[in-house]
Amino acid sequence: MVKPIDDRYGTFVPPAERVWVSAKTDDPTIDQRKTEADCLLEQAIELYQTRDFAVALRSFQQSLVIYRTLQDLQGEAKVLGGMGLIYYVMGNYTEAIACSHQSLGMARHIQDRTTERQALSNLGNSYRHLENYERAIAFKIQSLEVAREIQDRRGELAALSNLGMLYKTMGDCLHAIEYYHKSLLIARELPDIQAEAQVLRNLGNAHHSMSNYAETVNCYRQLLSLVHHLPNRLSEAQILKNIASACFSLGDHEQAIAYHQSRLAIAHELKDLELQEQTLESLSAICDSLGHYPQAIAYYQQRLDLAQQTGDRTLVQQLLASLKNLCCAIGDFAQANEYAMQIDCESFVPRPIEALPLKAKPTESLSNPTLKNLDRIREPFVRYIR
Questions:
Q1: CA geometry: angle at 234 spanning 232 and 237, to 5°?
Q2: CATH 2.40.50.100 for the 272-349+365-386 domain, yes or no
Q3: What angle, rounded to 10 degrees, do the helices at 53-69 and 28-49 form?
Q4: How many angstroms separate the CA atoms of 264 and 295, rounded?
């Protein structure tokens, strides 16, 4: 089953409608061609649901040719609506708008309200991404009205959620929160856990934008309880990061640290080195800012181990400097000196030995070095050891 959420933008995209039951005709040739078109449409929908968008588009296009040959307006309207949806999720908003406008005109002509609602929804989403907010709102409101008229609760949920997203994009978080709350009620009524999770995420983000950190934490905590039922540990880690950020903004530093520690546990479980490094960065920064230097040092040291493991020399240098400063702050000058020596070692990059000239002077050759030459040869290594 396709995800009902466009992961890149948080847009609610309901699954496409399945193929309708069509009436038989007296012409077996027409029936055969219509069956072929219906099968191609069904195939395209299944490919869309498995996110194989390029292949789905080809199946839609093949079925469109047949429906136009048969002058089947209902089939053509549905295919154009499906193509509009494919172009939308592929980011081709101009083509999405073109196909959706054609679908909308045909759907209204034959009074296919479901296809009409889908076309209006896709037009609203596409215009939002083109930043034509006036037209986006107009189409979204029409989509909401049609969904309510035909009692399509999932369509109503999609329209309300996407209106919230639209107003959030415009910076009008109050209206966004209003629409999110309405869509949340429907998601819970259905129930639809994935849709509820996305609405809670968007609602939390909207509250965070308004610095309503208590409400932000409330939304994210509800979201966290939901994602435990979904097999997505990375999503859970991201939610923990957001809750920790909101808790820190509220001054609940210990709770922020606890959420980051839970996030770190997930990173270790997934063996995700990048996520481990990012989480350790947050933990070390929080502990450092609170003056919890021993804990900060422990997290910085773990980050250092990871940086050395991945070969990130720039980060290694930065972390060694931070560790040296922290050790100085707590009066552990011996350990600070150890980190300083490591910084010197990291800074030293031995230069390749140049090839000796073919006719070297006896006093300058390595086979017969003078005392002066010996001092010159060993001096860099003495400095390195010190």
A1: 115
A2: no
A3: 160
A4: 15
